[in-house]
C-alpha cells in the first residue's frame, strides 16, 4: 500500500486473473449472460442450459424477463423515447449508420459540430470535443494533457480509463486517499516541495487563461462508480486554487444524473464550472448513447483537436449515436417543450433516495450519498458474488456483482443502478427480494437505527 501511494502499482495480471477474470468466466449461470432486449427498466436475459453435461453451458433460444438494476440507464433514454427515437431514425435515413472516417477527414457532419456546441453550452464552457468512446476519452486525451515531468495527483479509486491515460502519459503520479481532501492537500504539498513539477505543454498557457506557475493536475470523478459517492468538490476546488493546480473532473456517472437541471456534480454541490479546468464526461449513462467529451477553454479544445491521435485517426461517432445525445440534451434542458426532462431528473432522485432509504432500513450496508443513483451494497467476501447473483437472477433481478480488481479483494459488493424509468412497484418488488436475500445470505450488517443515522 505504501508503494502504491507513490504512484500506480504495476499491473499484476496473474493475480487479477486468478481471483476474478477466470472465476467470472467459469461461472455461467449468473448475470453475465447476453441480454436480448433494450436495457430499459426490465430486460430479457438469455438462459443457459447444460448440453450433454458439458461446460461451458450453452445459450438457449429462451430468455428470462428481469427487473434491470444493472444498467447505467439513469434517465431512461436507453430504450425507446417519444422525442429522441424519431430524430435518431431521421438521421439514420439521411446520414446512415456510420461516419466511416475520422473527424478531420470527412467524418464530421453538422450534427457532430452541433453536439459539441451543446455540450459546451450545457456546461458553461467555451468549447467541447467529442470522442467515439468514453474510455478512450480519458485514456487517449489525458496523455495529451500530461507528460514526462507533469505532476498528476489522482484519486485512489479513479476509473481504469483514467489510470490508463495517466500511465500512458509518463507523468509523475501521486495517488491520494479516496475522496480525502486533507490527504490530497498533504500529497500535493509534499510533491511540490520535492521538486519543480510542471504541468505539461497543453496546460502552460491554454487552460483557464494564463497558467504561469501552475503546479500539477488533480484528477477526480463526479460520482465514483464503485462507491456511489460524490466528489468532495468544494474542498477539492479550494485546495487546487491554494496550490495552483489544475482540476480534471470525470463526470461519466454524474452528468445528466445530478443537479436539478442534470448539469452534474457542480450544479448539485453549488460549484462554479469555471473552477473546473477540464470537464470530461460520457454519453453512455444518462444520455443512452455512446461516446465521451472534454469541455474546457477554446484553446484547450483546439489543441486537442489538432494533436490528439484518437481524434485525428479514429473514426468519428456514428451520426445516429450523435443525434441520440443531441435529442437527450433537448429533453434534459427542456428545449423539447414537454417538461419531461425535469420530471425524469426529479424521478431519478426520488427513486434513488427511496431505494437507498429502504435498503438501509433492511439493514444493508449501502455505500454512497443521498441523491446518487449508484448504490453499492457490501458483501465483503468475494465467495458470495456468484451465489448472490445467481439467487437474484432466479428471483428476476438482474444485478451486477463486483469484486477484485474493480474493488479491493475483501470489499466485494453488488451494485444497484437506479433509473428514472423504474416505477415504485418495480422498486418495491426488488426490495421484497432484497429482504429475502438478507435473511438467506446473512447480509444484515446494521440495525435500523444505525442505518438511518448513516
Ligand atoms: N469514466 C468513468 C468514471 C466510468 O465509470 C466509465 C465507465 N463506466 C468510463 C469513464 C468509460 O466510459 P464508457 O463506458 O462510456 O466507455
From TrEMBL:
Molecular function via GO: pyridoxal phosphate binding; serine C-palmitoyltransferase activity
Pathway: Lipid metabolism; sphingolipid metabolism; Sphingolipid metabolism
EC class of the enzyme, as a word: transferase
Source organism per UniProt: Chlorella variabilis (Green alga)
Keyword Membrane attached: yes
InterPro entries: Aminotrans_II_pyridoxalP_BS, Aminotransferase_I/II_large, AON_synthase_class-II, PyrdxlP-dep_Trfase, PyrdxlP-dep_Trfase_major, PyrdxlP-dep_Trfase_small
Gene Ontology process terms (BP): ceramide biosynthetic process; sphingosine biosynthetic process
Gene3D superfamilies cross-referenced by the UniProt entry: Aspartate Aminotransferase, domain 1 (3.90.1150.10), Type I PLP-dependent aspartate aminotransferase-like (Major domain) (3.40.640.10)
Names of the cofactor(s): pyridoxal 5'-phosphate
Domain Aminotransferase class I/classII large: from-to ranges: 66-433
Keyword set, alphabetical order: Lipid metabolism, Membrane, Pyridoxal phosphate, Sphingolipid metabolism, Transferase, Transmembrane, Transmembrane helix
UniProt protein name: serine C-palmitoyltransferase
Protein origin, superkingdom: Eukaryota
Family named by the database record: Belongs to the class-II pyridoxal-phosphate-dependent aminotransferase family.
CDD domains registered for this protein in UniProt: KBL_like
Enzyme nomenclature, EC number: 2.3.1.50
Cellular component per GO, a single term: serine palmitoyltransferase complex
